[in-house]
Amino acid sequence: MKNGNFYLAVAALIMLILFISSSQTYEEQSQIGLLQSLLKNEPFKDQLSDISFVYGGSEVSIAASGYFKFVEFFIRKGAHFGTYFVMGWGLFLGTRNKTKLTALPMILAWLSATGYAATDEFHQMLTGGRTPLFQDVMLDSVGAATAIVLTFLVGLIVTKRKRR
After folding, report:
1. Are the CB atoms for 71 and 35 separated by under 8 Å?
2. Mean pLDDT of the chain, nearest integer
3. How far does CA 116 lie from the centroid of its chain?
4. φ/ψ (deg, to 5) at 124
5. Which of 23, 48, 60, 103 is the most exposed place for a label (fewest CB within 10 A)?
6. What is the distance between the alpha carbons of residues 97 and 24, in angstroms, rounded to a whole number?
7. Are 151 and 117 a contacting pair, CB within 8 Å?
8. What would the pLDDT profile of 137-163 be if each residue is shown by its tens digit?
9. Residue 49 CB contacts under 8 Å (≥ 6 apart), including other chains
10. At what angle do helices 103-125 and 5-22 cross, to 10 degrees?
């Protein structure tokens, strides 16, 4: 793991999973049926009904899309953030030991993840029933940046503690 290849393999695996996922239509990916069976009683519906905002030019609220699509929206966006978090982490750790420079692996990892997010949204444009969104690229980019910064900061803390 010292040479970073394991981490690059993790990032590549995430890219493969994302490519396959982007090849599927919304209907193939929909978790509405599962949510309907797991959340039959629509927990916290009253509290969640007060939440309303615009994302990608569409209103996101229970009133606009219903309880289950509303919950699925957050699951989907959490998956965006989470997968790119893992990708950014893998890309940063995979490139960190390959150079003596500190900022270069951070920048390369972030640009690579953001670039992949943009091409992934383009790929979705070619898939029926999918809508590419610039907002998703931004969310993905923030997920990657969060992982990179946190990993860097944890590395600093660990290094300082080892020196003591």
Report:
1. yes
2. 94
3. 11
4. -65, -30
5. 103
6. 36
7. no
8. 999 999 999 999 999 999 999 989 988
9. 61, 62, 63
10. 20
How open is the CA angle 85-69-83, to the nearest 5 degrees?
10
Determine contact, residues 70/62, Cβ cutoff 8 Å.
yes
d(CA 9, CA 95): 12
At 160, list the tokens. 């300082």
Contact between 152 and 117 (Cβ < 8 Å): no
Two tokens, residue 6? 């394991």
pLDDT of 3 over the 90 cut: no
Dist. CA 89–CA 95, nearest whole Å: 10
- Amino acid sitting at position 10: V
**For tokens 């790119």, what's the residue?**
84
Q: With beta carbons less than 8 A apart as the criterion, state whether 113 and 88 touch.
A: yes
Q: If you search the block for the tokens 């993790």, which residue do you land on?
A: 10
Look at the alpha carbons of 150, 156, 159, 161 in this order and tell me if their dihedral is positive or negative.
negative
C-alpha triplet 124, 133, 90: angle, nearest 5°: 75
Question: What letter represents residue 1's amino acid?
Answer: M
